[in-house]
Amino acid sequence: MTPGAPSEHPIRILLVEDDSVDVAAIRRALGRGGVNADVTALPRAEDALELLGSGPVPFEVLLTDHRLPGTSGLELCREVLARRIPIGTVMLTGAGSEHLAVKALKAGVDEYLIKDTRNRYLELLTALLPEVVRRHRARLAHGEAQATLRHLAAIVESSHDAIVGHGLDLAIISWNPAAERIFGWRADEVVGKPLTMLLPQDHREEMPRMMERLVAGERIENYETLRRRKDGSLLDVSLTVSPIRDGDGELRGASAIVRDITDKRRAEAAQRRAHREMEAFLFRVSNDLRTPLLSVRGMLELMREDLGRDAPEGNISEDLLTYFEHIDRSTTWMGRLLEDLAEMSQVGHTDTTPSAVDPRRIVDQVVVEARDRARDTSLDVGIADGFPTLWCNPKRLRQVFSNLVDNAIKFGGRDGAIQIGWRPADAGERHAVLFVQDRGPGIPRSEQSRIFEMFYRRQGSEGPGTGMGLAFAKRILESMGGAIWVESAVGQGSAFLFHLPRSRT
Ligand code: ADP
Q1: Which of 401, 409, 411, 462 should be mutated for ligand 1, with most atoms under 8 A from CB?
Q2: Ligand 1 centre from 293 Cα, in Å?
Q3: SS (H, E, C) 173-216
Q4: Of the candidates 166, 225, 223, 167, the residue with the CA atom closest to the CA atom of residue 199
Q5: pTM of the prediction?
Q6: Measuring CA to CA, which residue among 14, 6, 5 is closest to residue 136?
Q7: Distances from the Cα of 209 to the Cαs of 163, 172, 244, in angstroms?
Q8: In this predicted model, what pLDDT tens digit does every residue of 419-447 receive, in sequence order?
Q9: Which residue has a Cα nearest atom 7 of ligand 1?
Q10: Is 180 left (phi over 0), alpha (psi -120 to 50) or beta?
Q11: Which of 152, 156, 155, 174 lies closest to 164, judged by CA?
């Protein structure tokens, strides 16, 4: 800002002066000099201190006469400085007291002006004030930056995660206490050394790749990998790396937050073990239960035959027939449940070898079988052309389509058409999206994720079903690197979409 030029915001001045003529002269001079100022004048130092001492300081400059009733301008400035009140200070005094100037400047007052009889000091004041304000504002900004730095340093110091800073040459620049605890190296042992000392031998190529990504402006988030401790042992970590840039935006290095995920890994391994045991158990139980179930059904058949033979004219009573039907239905349903359970427990263990698969052939077969099952050969099913070749297990893909098409028929396809197709992916996209769409009643948004849960059937879902079809499809797809979701609105049908890796062949 040019001295004397009007500033955008008025300079807020607290003027302590008991001579009203001088107050008026100062106001006039500031106005004449084009200083945009907002002046509050008080005659007494106590009032000024009271105003400055309560809450945020509403002034940028304290302009005080030296000669004040009961005290002096110098005392007032000393008090303001002692209390660390953030404000610029300018002192005015009468001629012949130059020794005071030295005292004032020693005390830390910003500027000192001697009132001359020809009032030349007023001109000087208008030139000086904007400069005092500029210095004061710079001091404030510096203070705030320092406070922020101290705050950030405290966060880094107290973090549970290791925070490691390094330059472009990969030399370690900073190393917080958590890094000492996690890696076992003290800061003085690693600062200046190459970051690669923390990488296991077979992970060395990670570093240049990460730097390339940072140079490209990317941030690396939750990248799970291995690091090496001082004692040589390996450590599972999750890395979040951010670029460090200088004031001109030039990349200067990076800072990595290194989270020790050993406990998470252990928990995952335990969960996988428990999962495998549960699946083995399910497989065993569902298979073992099928044998007695078969014998129940066999016995039932024998009973029906025997009773029919012994009953007069071979007629079994209505009641008995109803009982037989109930048992038949229940055992059939139980058999299907056991079959589904056995299948479900095997997903991801058998027959998952992927190959290049043309979905069209599978869809055609599934539709023929579904028409047979639904005993409706005229079922309106539209099948798209030109399906992309997928990289998956054909038997599993068939099970997915089979479930989705059966559902489309069961829950709403009968009166309307079913569409089976695919959506074009962006060039370079490694997955393809396929869908089975019906014009049925649709599924409310609140239940759209629940229908993929095991045994979940929507209220009022008629017809046979164990509530496992969609859960089964989801597990199959996930085991092949895919995912499934539904797009549906009540009254407007449902589209079940899934994606799977495309074949590169
Ligand atoms: P199930 O078919 O044995 O009931 P699923 O897991 O296949 O079990 O489906 C779960 C529930 O999701 C079904 O009970 C039904 O309420 C709902 N659902 C599935 N597919 C559709 C569809 N195409 N239209 C409407 N609701 C559906």
Answers
A1: 411
A2: 26
A3: EEECHHHHHHHCCCHHHHCCCEHHHHCCHHHCCHHHHHHHHHHC
A4: 225
A5: 0.54
A6: 14
A7: 20, 18, 17
A8: 999 997 766 678 899 999 999 999 999 99
A9: 469
A10: alpha
A11: 174
